[in-house]
């Protein structure tokens, strides 16, 4: 089993076709630093060379574990982290402002035990902050050698385009990568985000390729509520008896049958689907344990045949999202409310 490498957008950097996500490293995911270091080392030994974390994951603990794991191995790993999420009670300890970015990057560099970040990502767009303010601050960090590349996460297509235009018009460093939610159950980005990413030659590293666990096969129709750290933390989201989840459970039943007929595990089917989109560079896998990692490593060398991809389209049509709550996008109901908002309301 060898993991292939793919070009990271148009940067010239080669990254493994699976990226290791570190969101589960640290409490409340897996509190053991020893386990976390072991997961990172096993991934690197298997050929993974891109690791994704964020300052907010376990409020910095995930970056600390990644930093520990990379001692002596830093040079050959493409380290991606993020800023934007709240990192304290003070009114300014979050966001996309130059002021916060200057502080957030120093804290991430210290926790990661490194002098540079390969990909520094804006975790979410910020309505009240001029995107040029953010790109200007990030461009300065690139010129100072503190970061190599700029990325975004969960940006709508219009914001991705805006970022490219700002870079061109105001001579800023360009955003080279987008990190969107993408899985068989969350295909919304196929309509606009992925075509736009392709048009601008962006790397695409999707998050939650197993829809947070739905596509592992552990949540089944009529089955018992399985033991899961996520289900404990977000009970409604993974409730197998909830009417809100019925369409996901029905899709999972059909997908499990399809996987069995194709001689694949459901995990291989799910990761193979994300890997197959021509706009995708590397899905970010999010194992909480070493055993979960082992079950995902084989997917990068198990491409899905066209007839299996066609059969997936029949179960969940292109562009459809059954799992909106898992995507980080604002649900349409909230969008409507914000459209109705008037000054002062
Ligand atoms: N940019 C963003 O906004 C954003 C958002 C989310 C994630 N991410 C990134 O994407 C990475 C992956 O996201 P994700 O963790 O949501 O990915 P995911 O692969 O969709 O879900 C991971 C979860 O699936 C379950 N799982 C994984 N392997 C399993 C196996 N072999 N058997 C049974 N269950 C298994 C685990 O649930 P249990 O823990 O319940 O066992 C695990 O926590 C993160 O680490 C992070 O780097 C980014």
Automatic annotation (TrEMBL):
Q: Name one GO cellular component term.
A: cytosol
According to the entry, every stretch annotated as the NADP-dependent oxidoreductase domain falls at: 18-315
PANTHER family cross-referenced by the UniProt entry = NAD(P)-LINKED OXIDOREDUCTASE SUPERFAMILY PROTEIN, NADH-SPECIFIC METHYLGLYOXAL REDUCTASE-RELATED
Any idea which GO molecular function terms this record carries?
A: oxidoreductase activity
Protein name (Swiss-Prot/TrEMBL) = Predicted oxidoreductase
Q: List the keywords (alphabetical).
A: Oxidoreductase
| Source organism of this protein record | Streptacidiphilus jiangxiensis
Q: Which domain of life is it from?
A: Bacteria
UniProt xrefs under InterPro entries: AKR, AKR_Detox_Biosynth, NAD(P)_OxRdtase_dom_sf, NADP_OxRdtase_dom
């Amino acid at each position: 089993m060898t993991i292939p490498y793919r070009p990271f957008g148009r940067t010239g950097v080669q990254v493994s076709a699976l990226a290791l996500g570190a969101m589960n490293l640290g409490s409340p995911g897996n509190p053991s630093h020893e386990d976390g270091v072991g997961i990172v080392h096993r991934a690197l030994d298997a050929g993974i060379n891109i690791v994704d974390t964020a300052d907010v994951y376990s409020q910095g603990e995930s970056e600390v574990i990644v930093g520990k794991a990379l001692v002596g191995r830093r040079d050959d790993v493409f380290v991606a982290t993020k800023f934007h999420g709240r990192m304290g009670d003070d009114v300014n300890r979050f966001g996309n402002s130059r002021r916060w970015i200057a502080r957030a990057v120093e804290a991430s560099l210290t926790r990661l035990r490194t002098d540079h970040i390969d990909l520094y990502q804006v975790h979410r767009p910020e309505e009240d902050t001029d995107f040029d303010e953010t790109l200007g601050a990030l461009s300065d960090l690139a010129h100072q050698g503190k970061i190599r590349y700029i990325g975004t996460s969960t940006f709508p297509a219009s914001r991705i385009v805006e970022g490219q235009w700002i870079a061109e018009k105001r001579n800023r460093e360009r955003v080279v990568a987008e990190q969107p939610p993408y899985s068989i159950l969350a295909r919304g980005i196929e309509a606009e985000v992925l075509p736009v990413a392709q048009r601008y030659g962006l790397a695409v590293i999707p998050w939650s390729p197993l829809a947070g666990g739905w596509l592992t096969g552990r949540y089944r129709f009529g089955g018992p509520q399985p033991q899961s750290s996520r289900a404990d933390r977000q009970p409604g989201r993974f409730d197998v008896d909830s009417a809100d989840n019925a369409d996901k459970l029905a899709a999972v039943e059909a997908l499990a049958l399809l996987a069995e007929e194709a001689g694949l595990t459901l995990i291989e089917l799910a990761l193979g689907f994300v890997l197959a989109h021509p706009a995708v560079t590397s899905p970010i896998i999010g194992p909480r344990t070493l055993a979960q990692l082992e079950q995902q490593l084989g997917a990068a060398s198990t491409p899905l045949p066209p007839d299996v991809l066609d059969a997936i389209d029949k179960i969940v049509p292109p562009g459809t999202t059954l799992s909106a709550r898992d995507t980080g996008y604002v649900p349409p109901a909230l969008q409507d409310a914000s459209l109705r908002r008037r000054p002062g309301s």
